[in-house]
Amino acid sequence: MKRKLMDILACPIDKHHPLELHVFNEKDEIVEGLIVCPECNRWYPIRDEIPEMLPDELRKEAEDLPFLKKWREKIPDKIVSEGKPFCLK
Length: 89
Known about the structure:
Blueprint: E1 20-26, E2 30-36, E3 43-47, E4 50-51, H1 61-70, H2 77-82
Antiparallel strand pairs: 1-2, 2-3, 3-4
């Protein structure tokens, strides 16, 4: 994902802008990272350079929880313990 995309992204749930960006792996583009809405505490993974900004009903817990566990040390505590739609609490 290109960093400039953050200029236009808004939370698909509450439409909040701007969103927070946490980069875990970056080459020419962001390979893996996290997009966070500071208003509703929803988080959206960036995997293989693609931001996955899906509504809650289309998210898969079996895919999202391993992502949280993998990057737990780099993810803000509020997302690890209170993030939506899934958290590690």
